[in-house]
Automatic annotation (TrEMBL), chain A:
Pfam families with a match to the protein in the record: BPD_transp_1
Cited Gene3D superfamilies: MetI-like
Biased composition (Basic residues): 21-30
Segments passing through the bilayer: 38-56, 97-122, 134-157, 169-188, 209-231, 269-289
Family label: Belongs to the binding-protein-dependent transport system permease family.
Domain ABC transmembrane type-1: 98-289
Membrane topology listed for this record: Multi-pass membrane protein
Organism this protein belongs to: Streptomyces roseolus
Polar residues bias: start-end ranges: 1-10
Stated name of the protein: Carbohydrate ABC transporter permease
UniProt keyword annotations, A-Z: Cell membrane, Membrane, Transmembrane, Transmembrane helix, Transport
InterPro entries, A to Z: MetI-like, MetI-like_sf
Automatic annotation (TrEMBL), chain B:
PROSITE patterns in the cross-refs: ABC_TM1
Broad class of where this protein is predominantly found: membrane
The entry's keywords: Cell membrane, Membrane, Transmembrane, Transmembrane helix, Transport
Species classification: Bacteria, Bacillati, Actinomycetota, Actinomycetes, Kitasatosporales
Name the record gives this protein: Sugar ABC transporter permease
Species for this entry: Streptomyces roseolus
């Protein structure tokens, strides 16, 4: 990756549209020392620790259940991967769980991105009474653990007949405080208020402003937020585990919990094949979009 | 009018104050004073911020705030799963205070929290420091250490449950090679808690490392130049320049990890297999969340479970208060 050698922390005039995070990165990138061999040794070790469980998941999913529970555990892939996959797909319905999870995560991500952008725009650029107080409230809600609401929520969805229905997982996650805050932070810096004013002066109503000004500017942040929320919704466990059942309409995580707790015959190769089915789609997303996800995670955390 | 609203904002000025009130101009340009269009337009300008933030607050009210309060009400009742409430006052709370399971779960939540959060954040700091060097393949390393974040609690725990298996797991095989006897990762207290902490640490270290890395890259270079002119070694620079400069980020990760640790549920449950709900055969790794689930959904005592939920809220408020105090003291010490 080419890096600029500019090491002087110049104060640039604010250019609309350019992301400040990237500017900061370029400014300071020149100072770093070159890594020595020890750095590489440690980083390679960290990489192995990070990736080995994932590799071993593939190995275990390609053996028979009997082989997985034999000491010493297998280290190289076996030949049963396709058999295990088709068993997991047909017999324990991981295929259905995969579809359910895709539907849930997509709906949650799409709606969170839409509503967070609208709210983030309002908090960033629109004047209204109580703005500061309401924004603090949004941030404060991030610390409330889900444990505090699951008991009434469980009663509500049972009364509505939504138990074991996917909407009981989707509806509470339609928008998230993190998303609102994330979009607000982005739009405060990235959206020049003159652009909104100009559109306003031309008599554009709010929906036009949103469509023609806010969305185009916010698109990179919307993409990052969408990925982060998608990953989170895909992996969500606590509430889906309460609201759904492994034998009814499970997401992948709920189905896995059912396999792991031994509701079905505990064939550990099948359990780990299920784990693989739940992990591989996200790993592919990370492999292709890793850099953007890394950027998004750091952008969301550092600015706060 | 828009201007007056803006003036009333008091202490929090908007980051870039809009220069002119948009509403009246629009009125003049479009349809003359007093037309239906202008009324509509003014209404649009005034109400639209609230329309935009409404989805969040409505969702929060329905699925966050109302259940939160109702949980508090339930905690003062005896409620069976699917039954009606019967007022009990503080009985659920006094029962908890005398329940050894509650204190056991509280202590487990604390110990597992400490032995997963502390090493996790220290290792993340170290990794971030390494990644901050000029590196070949830096993009690869970043994505590789973030890969565990892509796995779910369920998938990660099921894989680690195999690796930690007492009889055939790879970790005991490795320990056997270096001459350490087989460790009973499931049924002994500390090994089980350590195994669960390893799962948590594995999933989150890379994530935190990247957050630290981003903060480190924002540290101004002249600080390092000054330090090395003073003859500070690289280690000394790390301790005296890097760490103090990213202190706010460290606080952020401490808060986030603490909140996460208080809610620990999936890892101990799935690690425990068939006895996961009770946190192992001797409740040796039952966390507060697990106890709450067991009370509510296995025993059917929702009032009791609600009381545990509110104790968790109290704990988080307490932790938040302590953290606010500490960060304020730190800020004073730094003189800003």
């Amino acid at each position: 990756m080419a890096r600029t050698l500019d090491t002087t922390p110049t104060v640039e005039p604010k250019t609309p549209g350019e992301r400040p995070a990237r500017r900061r990165f370029r400014q300071t990138a020149g100072r770093q020392h070159h890594a020595g061999p020890l750095t590489y040794v440690l980083l390679v070790a960290a990489t192995i620790v990070s990736l080995f469980p994932l590799y071993w998941n593939v190995v275990a999913a390609s053996h028979t259940g009997d082989r997985v529970v034999q000491a010493p555990a297998p280290l190289l892939p076996g030949s049963r991967l396709l058999d295990n996959l088709s068993f997991a797909w047909d017999q324990v319905d991981m295929g259905e769980a995969l579809i359910n999870t895709t539907v849930v995560a997509s709906l949650v991500a799409a709606s969170t991105v839409l509503f967070s952008t609208l709210a983030g725009f309002a908090f960033a650029k629109l004047p209204f009474k109580g703005r500061g107080m309401l924004l603090s409230l949004v941030v404060a809600t991030m610390t409330i653990p889900p444990q505090l609401s699951v008991i009434p929520l469980y009663q509500i969805i049972t009364d509505l007949g939504w138990f074991d229905q996917l909407q009981s997982v989707v509806l509470p996650s339609l928008v998230a405080a993190f998303g609102v805050f994330f979009m607000r932070q982005f739009l405060v810096e990235a959206l020049p208020v003159e652009l909104v004013e100009a559109a306003r002066m031309d008599g554009a109503h709010s929906l036009r402003v949103i469509w023609h000004v806010v969305f185009p500017v916010a698109r990179p942040a919307m993409a990052v937020l969408g990925m982060l929320v998608f990953v989170q919704a895909w992996n969500d466990f606590f509430w889906p585990f309460i609201a759904l059942t492994p034998d009814g309409n499970p997401t992948l995580q709920v189905a896995l919990a059912g396999l792991g707790a031994g509701n079905h015959t505990v064939d550990h190769a099948i359990v780990l094949t299920g784990a693989l089915i739940s992990t591989v789609p996200l790993l592919l997303v990370f492999a292709f979009l890793g850099k953007h996800i890394v950027g998004g995670i750091t952008a969301g955390a550092v600015k706060s | 009018m828009a201007t007056s609203v803006r003036a009333e904002q008091g202490g929090t000025p908007p980051p870039a104050a809009p220069p002119s009130p948009p509403a009246p101009r629009g009125r003049r340009r479009r349809s003359g004073p007093g037309g239906w269009r202008s009324t509509l337009y003014r209404w649009d300008v005034k109400a639209i911020p609230y329309v935009f933030i409404a989805p969040f607050f409505l969702t929060f009210a329905a699925f966050g705030l109302f259940p939160l309060i109702y949980t508090g009400y339930l905690s003062l009742n005896r409620v069976e799963l699917g039954g009606t409430a019967e007022w009990k006052g503080l009985e659920n709370y006094t029962d908890l205070a005398t329940s050894e399971f509650f204190w056991n779960a509280l202590l487990n939540t604390f110990t597992i929290g400490v032995i997963s959060t502390v090493p996790q954040l220290l290792m993340a700091l170290g990794l971030a420091h390494l990644l901050n060097y000029k590196l070949r393949g830096r993009g690869f390393f970043r994505v590789a250490i973030l890969a565990p974040y892509a796995t779910s609690i369920a998938a990660a725990t099921l894989v680690f449950a195999q690796l930690f298996n007492t009889d055939y797991g790879m970790i005991n095989t490795l320990l056997d090679w270096v001459g350490i006897g087989p460790i009973d990762w499931n049924n002994s207290k500390w090994p089980a808690q350590i195994a669960i902490s390893v799962i948590v640490t594995w999933r989150w270290t890379g994530y935190n490392a990247l957050i630290y890395l981003a903060a480190m890259q924002a540290v101004p270079q002249d600080l390092y130049e000054a330090a090395s002119l003073d003859g500070a070694s690289r280690w000394r620079q790390f301790i005296s320049v890097t760490i103090p400069s990213i202190r706010p980020t460290i606080f952020f990760t401490i808060i986030v990890s603490t909140i996460g640790a208080t809610q620990l549920f999936g890892e101990p449950m799935l690690f425990g297999g068939s006895v996961g709900i009770s946190g192992g055969s001797g409740h040796q790794f039952q966390t507060l969340s697990l106890l709450m689930y067991e009370k509510g959904w296995i025993t059917g005592a929702l009032g009791s479970a609600s009381a545990i939920a509110w104790v968790m809220l109290a704990l988080l408020l307490l932790l938040g208060g302590i953290q606010a105090l500490v960060s304020r003291r730190n800020r004073k010490k730094l003189g800003d």
